[in-house]
Amino acid sequence: MDMSENKLTTANGFDPLDMNNYRIEKLPKRSKSKFESFLALIGGPLAIIVFLLLYFIVQPGYLVHIDPSTLSDHAKQIFNARGAAEFSRINIAMLAIFALGIVLWMTEAIPNYLTSLIIIISLVLTGVLTEKEAYAQLGHKVMWLNIMSFVLASMLVKTGLAKRFALWFIVHFGKHSSSLFLSFLFINVVLSAFISATTAKAAILLPIFMVIAAVYGARGGDNKNNFGRNIVLQNLFYINIGASGFLTGSGANLLAASLIAGVTGTDIFFSDWMKANFPVAIGLMLVGYLVATRIFFPLKKEERVPQIPGGMERLREELLKLGKISFEEIKAAVLFISILVLWATDKYHGISPTAVAFLGAIIALLPRIGIVKWNDVDIPWHLMLFSAGAYTLGAGFKATDLPSLSVNATFDALGLGADTPFWVLYLILTFAMVYSALVFQSKTMRTMIFVPIALGVAVRFGYNPLSLALPVAFLIEHVYALPFNSKPAALLYETDHYSMTDTFKYGITMITIGWFMNILMGETWYRYLDITPNGVFGWF
Prior knowledge:
540 residues; mainly alpha; globular
């Protein structure tokens, strides 16, 4: 593209190099494909039919006749209090509501936060949970961590520190197309250590990589090219996998650690998680870069150089506009480094990540000496309501013990007895966890389902619960193959820089590579750290 074309575009009211044009609220609403529209059309009726069938007609035998000796202590108390018939009924109700939610979330027949509200009230009206239990999930400690993280992320945005860091790194190290992609890899790793909301990371980085995409001739829509596919899909991958390297990388990681600690009595510290999975995250991100640029979206010669003359200079101008680093930015940097240090040393001082984020947010909001005002904080409450629905489903699973009952019935049906080798269990559970990302919309919900299942399976077969639960938890962040798999995936799909086919073929490949790498780590690195007993297969 020459300069005259660039001027024409600007004259028509849109400057492709203006970062303000790529703020989330300014992104054009992406029109649905015919298939997506069809799913949305049938989603509502289909969800109602599935619910009615499961609740009133199709009743799994293992839920009708429940053996109380197989239940968890919490579910056993509810069984004794309500009786066998009522306990079976609420399990069937739980299954029906879960299926209803899955259909609505997958088809996007209604907004995801509205689906969560329907789930919450359904669990109350069917008697699965009391009002106190259901409504209290909005106050879950991980919800508070998310809220405080958005406060801290807003501080980064308001002071311009995140933008300065990303621009500075791109200007100094993003000289070529390949180094640009690797620069975003590094930026995502750094932000993942500080920000426990993947959506917040996406919001911070999206304007920057959209401007770079425009510089290289990728405008989305009818102007898609492989540079645009690479920079958006790689950032989506880095945002999620970068989060997998840190306990505080996402609320789902913290939730998994809480579930494991609740069963085993063993705390999973920030340093423990980072030692085990940070090397895996870095390795996967590098593989993801190679798979994208060398296999699926190789750059043509003309895509390797800027299409808008002076485009990269525009980024340098944006950096210069920020001026010298301000005192507010220095305060924000000191606060974030302090938070990271406290997170990294949690094993020694015992303060939880949520409490650390709480303290950081309070300091950031303090009058006069703080950094950000409440009105500057951007908390997406629709996402909070969505998460609350997922946590309420988790509370329903805990009350009914539906995952464990389903696991026991499945293992009995498959004829897997007490002599089942560890490697069979490891492969089944990690496979189910990683590929479930293709159908679930919430990694929180996947965590609520599969981590307790892994813990239950380990106990059933006499293995250390950590040996199965931690490798399963390390796969939480593989939520990038389809637009509905996570909030960042849904957000970046709106850029219209890639198709459903693009994201699926890249995503399913990286999910498969991630699963194989998890198996390899289970045989080597996790074994060295005493997570898996004698490795997965016991080959080494």
